[in-house]
Amino acid sequence: MSVKQNGETIKAEIEQICARCGRDPDEINIVAVTKYVSVQTAQEALSAGFVHIGENRAEGLAEKRNSLQGEAVWHFIGSLQSKKVKKVIDKIDYLHSLDRISLAKELDKRLAFGNQLKCFVQVNVSGEESKAGLAPVEVIPFIRELEAYQGVKVVGLMTMAPFVDEPEETRAVFRKLRLLRDEVQALQLAHAPCQELSMGMSNDYQVAIEEGATFIRIGSALVGRESDR
Fold first, then answer.
1. By the number of CB atoms within 10 A of the CB, which of 56, 103, 181, 200 ranks highest?
2. Helix (H, G, I), strand (E, B), or coil: what is residue 152?
3. What is the pLDDT of residues 76-102, one digit of tens each?
């Protein structure tokens, strides 16, 4: 199927999920993850109305941003090395992988005076060694420390659940992130409104939405995967 057809299927499913759990479908932002596809396929996604575009490499981000026709909201969804910040800082609207003070310091240094970058703090809820992110117990102290960096605005938390055959097994991970987000929100920190949850990918976004996701990162289910990327 085409990207547009895939998108229509996903949107219909989101409407059904939201009706079932009492949510508004408009709360769900679909980030089209285009890291494994060509500029042409990414353009199809943007033309089909998927304005949130996600990349995980500085090079891929620059290529897509320079080539796509139309207004997009740009998300950097991969681990970001401090030395690469200067290559992406003026090209992104959201960063989904803030997990250390050294990165926050570099972001703050590179941002134009008075500007803020919308950041998700990455949390390794599952505790898998292969995944980046803070342990849940580290999140609130870390976010408090971020107050020193005026360019960093913590809009939410992000996690990646384990890849499993049965999506239901991811529910506890997503629920724990939501509860942690609620704890941060209750602190009412000016630099960390923390209203959003970036969680759920092609294999488990249904469960993530049921548990409160507001940004879902969809690659293969929406744009497919091309062998040359």
1. 200
2. strand
3. 999 999 999 999 999 999 999 999 999
